[in-house]
Structures are given as C-alpha cells and as structure tokens.
Amino acid sequence: MKSYYIQLFSPHGLIRFHQAEIGRDKDTGGQVKYVLELLEALSKHPQVRKVDLFTRRITDKRVSASYSQPVEVVNEKARIIRIDCGGQLYKEKEQLWDHLDEFINNTIRFNEEEDDYPDVLHGHYADGNYIACELSKIFALPLIATGHSLGRNKKRMLLNQGWEEKKVNDRFNMQRRIDEEEKVIANADVVIVSTRHEIETQYMGYHNKLQANFKVIPPGVNSDVFYPYYRLEMPSFAMTIEQEQALYKINSEIERFLFNADKPLILSIGRADKRKNFEAIITSYGQDKELQAMANLAIFAGVRKDITQMPEDEKEILTNLLLLMDKYDLYGKMALPKKNDPGVEVPEIYRIAARKKGVFVNATPGENFGLTIVEAAACGLPIVASPTGGPKEIVEQANNGLLIDVEDTAAIATALKKIIADRALWDQYSANGIRAGAEDYAWNKHAEKYIAIINEIFAEKSEKFRPQSSFGRKLADANMFLISDLDGTLVEGDDMTGLDELMNWLRHNPNVVFGISSGRSKALMQEALEKYPFVNPDVLICSAGTELYYTKDFIPDVGWEKHINHQWKRPQIQAAMEELPNITLQGAGAQWPFKISYFATEKFTGDDLANVNKQLYDRKLPAKVLLTDNKYLDIIPRRAGKGNVVRYLSYKWKLPVEQFITAGNGGNDIDMLQGQAKGIVVANYSKELDVLQGKRNIYFAKEPLSSGISEGINFYAKNAKKQDK
Question: What is the pTM of this model?
C-alpha cells in the first residue's frame, strides 16, 4: 500500500498549531481552523508518511514571535513550515499576491534542502491554490484544491453593497484572484468542497466549472475536543486542569452579564463579519419579550480589545451590536464577551449552553458549510439555521434543529421558543446532533475519504505522476547546467556542426540540465526549434534574458517576470530613446514587455553607446543596454539579462554557479559568459568577445558551433579531474 507525503498550502501566515489564534483577525477564521485540523487528521492516517502545512514566516512585533519560527513540529508526522516571502512584516492576504512567486521559489529550495519531495499538493484559498498549482506543473504532482470562499462571489457581494469595481479590484486584487481561481479549477485533479450547495452556487459563476472534478467531503470536528455536554457527569470522565480553568473562566465571563444565569442560553459564535447576521439575532430576541423571559442571549463576535482601534468593517459591526443591545435594553439578559480562546474555551461555551438546555443559532444566509453548526451539534446543542447552503444539508442530514428564514426576525424567535419550550424535542435534536458529529462529521472519516481519493488519482493517472516525467525533479537533482546561445553558437542556420555529438553526450548524461539562451522571442524560438526536432532543452531563455521557460512546452517561470519588473519603466525609456540619433526601433515582432529593441545604423559608434547609457542615467531610468554585432541594440531591465538568469536558476534550483557551463559567440552573451560560471566562447565568435581573452573561467574553443561547445566541456572535465588528483 502506497504511503504519501502531502503538502498543504495556506500562505497568509498567522497560523500556529499550539494555541492557535482563531478569530484574531479576518485572515484567521474558519479556513485556518480547517487546515490545522486537516493537518492533524491526515497525520493520523496509516497511509500518510508525512504531512506539512506551508505558510508565510512573519517577524513582526505586532504578532507573537512563534510566527517567526521556520518549523513548528505538531507531531511525529506533521509540521508547519514557514516560508520567507514579501519581507518580514505581517501583511493581509490580499497584499501578498505579488510575492507568491517568491514563496514558490523558496518552497522549491526547502524541498531541495530536505531532499524529500511531496506526492500530493493541496492548496487552500485562492493564494494557496495558486502556489500548489504552479508547483504541480513543475514537479508533475497531483493537485487538490479547496476554495473555502471564491472571488467572484465576494466581488458580487461587494458590488451589491455599493463598492465600485475598480475599488474592489484595487483593494482585494480581485481580478488576479478570479483569474487564478479559473486556472486552478481547470487544472486541479480534484476540487474538494464541503457541500453540494458549494458546487451549485459558489462555482457556477466560473467558466471552467465543467472541467472540475468535484468531490464532496465535509470537514469534521475533533471528537476529543467537541464532545457531548453530559460527559462531565460521567464517573469515568476527568477534565484536564486547562479544561477546568477554561470552563470556569468562560462561565464567569458569560454570567457577569446576566441577572439570571440559570435560564436556557441562546448562543451564536463567529467573526465580527456582516454576513454572520448577528444583528438579526439580537433584533429577534429584543423584539420578543416572551423569548427574553424564557432565555438569555450570548453573542461571541470574534476577539476585541479597543473597538476604536479595529478595522472599519469590524468596528461598524461591533458598534451596531452594542447599539442594538442598548436599543432593546438587554442589559442583564444578553452577554457580549470580548474574547475567547478557540482551542479550549469555545468547546466549553457550546457545552455550557447545552447544559442550560439552550439553542445554537447560525444566522448566516447561504453559508458554504457552517462548521460552528457541526461543532455545536457534537456538543449536544440543537440548531436554528438558514434553509439554504451548507446549514440546510447539515441539519437535514442530522435532523437536529429547525431551518428558517434567517432574515425574518420573527421566524428566528418562533423557532427558538419552539425548541426551548419542548423538552422532548430538545432531547431529540441534541441526541441526533451528537450522533451526526461522531459518525458523519468526524475528521477521521474525512481523512479516510481524502486518502481514498488520492488512491484513485494514482490508480487512474499513474503514468502522469512519475518523478522521471517531472522537469522540476530533473532540475532539482541536476549536478550541472549547460546553457548555450542558439544562433551562431549551437547552430548557424543550416550549419549544425557538432550538434549530433553534443546531443548524444547530453542523452548519456541525464543529470545535466540543457538550456538554450537567445535574443529571440518565444515565438521565434519556437519557430527555430521546429528546425531541430531532436534538440530537447530543459530551459529556454528568450528575448536576451527577459523570458524564462521550461521544456519545449514553454512552461513559464512565473517568478522571473516579477523579479525583473523591479524599477522597469518601459514607456519612459522608449520616450527618452526617441531623442537619440543613429538608432531605429525594430518591428513589433522583436519587442517584448521587458525588452526594447533597436537597429543601430552604420554610423553608430562607441560614443553613441555611451550617450544611450548617459540618457538613461540622467533620467533615473535603471536599465541594461546590450549591443550585438554593432547592429542590434537591446534595452532590458536592470535585473534581466542572460547572466542574471543563470544566477537566478542557480539560486532557485540550489546548484552553485560554479557548476554552470555557458557558451556563446556574441556581445549579448558577455554577462552570461563571465563571472563564476565556466564560459565557452566558440571559434566563430564576434569581436565584442575579445574583451574576454585571458579572463579566468573563459575557454576560447578552436572549433566552431556545437563542436566548440563539446571541446569546452571536455576541457573543463579534464581540469576537474586534475584538481581531484
């Protein structure tokens, strides 16, 4: 039976297993709880050899130092891995999109350092799915995706609230998020959802929905934490000191608000989020004097200290709750505690309400799932919830409460009174909820279904998911990179001198990564490779080091463009160049977002080249200027260039630059040839390379084209043997 190493991705950063701060802010809600409990549940399955949850490392005085620890051990098979990206300070997840490619690169490096690669990648939320999707392409691994909440739906909700579309896109990076969600839906081997409702409503707005392989696996509850309220009364049961302290603390916190704490307790728990609809619950209670006489009300709306210092949306919601409490004069009848510990206190909150024969209310309309409903049910609390979405599926499956229109405050009050007044009905709903929590919504059941799905994926697609089919594994395991210029170095038109010999050497050295570097664009490179079908590069560097791809499928390195875009001001550069003589702009086919190409006239001199550099320097336009054969002038970002690509590849794939061999014949190869890499200049080189004569680590071959490359490889191999002796 195959065992698996599973990697989970939830990159926003405020995730820790021990004393998890669930509800600390809007990024630490149900999704964090979900991934932490999934992590632990999978680690207990016998077919899982290891499971890691990857998130962002944060070093910030505003948050606990625990978030700066690179590795947090959960148990012998589970860890939380914290990856550097986007600096050290905490950022909201919407601000991380431009840094996720750095996260990908550093995850690759982590796997290389561990010398252990996953069998399965599972992304959570849009950002985690983006990371997992890119890694699955690189390493040819199964991709599992869980959306949690989706961008199209959030965008529609915000527009309905009066937001302008531009503001939505700017504030939440929404269009980028939606585009990536579409790609993930199309590429994932499995999209895990919690309910059928999630498929029918949340995903139906996506163009690629018909390509998705949806699997419904509801999340579970931890039965060691969320157990029935009556267990405390059993002779064999003993609470831990931590549980006793939590029970005492939370009971005292609730009772300090109430005149008669013995009455049944109506309970609702969630973040300070408008969708939680706490206002409707308070209004229904405040408008019904009979209900106030029958029961108390407790609302746990996240964690707060000073409302005035909170984000505007949370400040508005909490202020409204307090105003409603005052409006209906609910002092002594309603509790609105300021904080709770999700790990130990929330389960005790449910059980306190159950022992008082209370009811749990989830007033969120159309919620995807409703994890609080399952938690409350497992503790023995009957439920009142919306007749749509996940709550409908849970309550109908468990038969443990009433489904009502949660926008109708009178209907909420009627349902609550019905359950509280009928003890037999309360007992029936309580028992049914406890049974459902143990049988239908347990994490061990979730893990069993999850692993069964992975087994199916490997059974059906075993040929697709093989280490040898992964270009990522080849690059990660390589002991040498050979990067050669194309035109005039590897070949010259129809002249392929020595090409067969070089390709044969590469076939017999599978641990050598072969790359082609060229001033050609992607389209022109594809056209060129069609002439040489037996040439199979692993790496393709195009447009003078501004484009980076892998394999003949031209799979882009998503991090490279982000890297070179730093301080690149193409329009301003092009405007500045219009003032200079002896150059003319090349056609559209020669241009690229990160390369501006010109023809240099016959009158173009060294002084003209100096003036180009001065023009850019004086206008504070950082860029790199490349001249080839004194005919072709390219301007590219400061961070771009063939040499910088080599250094980038060295860092990303964790192979020292000294183990790179580069080969070229023209001026735009200079920065690739010189430096710590071993350079080969083929015999048919142009005069710009004379400056490299006598330089360390530069070999001038006697043979032209590919024959010269093979000659240089043999030279360096002999030198290495001499040094070994």
Answer: 0.84
